Amino acid sequence: MVEINLNDAEFFAYHGFYPEEQLLGSRFLVDISVSFIPAGNLSDDEIGNTVNYEQLYNIASHEMQHTRKLIETVCQSMVESIKAKFPFIEKLSVCIKKMDPPLKGKVGHSNVVVSWIKE
Q1: Which residue ranges form the domains of the chain, and what is each CATH number?
Q2: Cys bridge to 109: 37, 70, 73, 97, which one at CB 3.0-4.6 A?
């Protein structure tokens, strides 16, 4: 089993339940973790035998551009897109961190994690 991780991919986006969040926007960090059995021999040194983390980043970037009220919805969309792109994945987790969420006190970030395991 191989695990590929993309950590702290940074985006500025307009997700949020409150209208002012969708107007002002926020900084988000995205973590993606995928586990899979390689399609071929990793010693072949071929990108087709693994998960290309550049494509993971591109999926995250694409989904972050679609404004939604809930980051849970954004996470789920990323999971579905990644599963479609890499059907051989066995395990997948997406975490989206909203930096400095608009709360009454100082909070570093809030986050949502959506995980999936192939049955």
Answers
A1: 2-117 (3.30.1130.10)
A2: 97
